């Protein structure tokens, strides 16, 4: 499927009819032609998870790695909180880390509506990640099964371990 930039270029070139992409990329493409968002997953599901943090159980056996996992989650939570609360900070991070020059140089007229969609409609940066739990993930399992992406059953209670997240939340206060 390639990177999000590859997918956007393929859509622009007419090599594909539809692709998954980030909200800000969809906004950019809308400025370049008659491109429409077909599916807004955050409107289909109570909580839309566009990314997760994963590792192996073997990696977590080392105490140093357990501490590293907590540190990574603290960093993510801190950035989520700052992004959710502070448009100027979000804009500075886009300017530094965006994958395209065009997005890095985007002005407020473009970025502020994207940030607003991400923070208020999608709720892309949950401050405590309370929504990241087995019950919420269970709601999307039928869609995965229907698409043929999941066969059989999965015990989400065994798969999702919130212990490191809970420790990160405790340390952050």
TrEMBL record:
Question: Which named protein is this?
Answer: SsuA/THI5-like domain-containing protein
- Native source species: Sphingomonas taxi
């Amino acid at each position: 499927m390639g990177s999000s930039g590859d997918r956007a270029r393929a859509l622009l070139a007419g090599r594909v009819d539809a692709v998954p992409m980030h909200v800000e990329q969809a906004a950019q493409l809308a400025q370049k032609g008659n491109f429409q968002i077909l599916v807004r997953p955050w409107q289909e599901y109570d909580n839309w998870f566009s990314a997760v943090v994963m590792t192996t159980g073997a990696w977590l056996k080392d105490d140093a790695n357990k501490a590293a996992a907590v540190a990574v989650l603290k960093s993510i939570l801190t950035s989520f909180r700052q992004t959710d609360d502070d448009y100027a900070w979000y804009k500075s991070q886009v300017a530094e880390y965006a994958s395209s020059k065009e997005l890095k140089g985007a002005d407020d007229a473009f970025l502020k509506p994207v940030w607003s969609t991400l923070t208020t409609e999608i709720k892309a940066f949950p401050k405590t990640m309370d929504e990241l739990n087995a019950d919420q993930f269970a709601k999307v399992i039928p869609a995965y099964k229907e698409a043929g992406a999941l066969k059989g059953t999965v015990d989400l209670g065994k798969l999702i371990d919130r212990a490191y997240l809970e420790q990160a939340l405790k340390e952050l206060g």
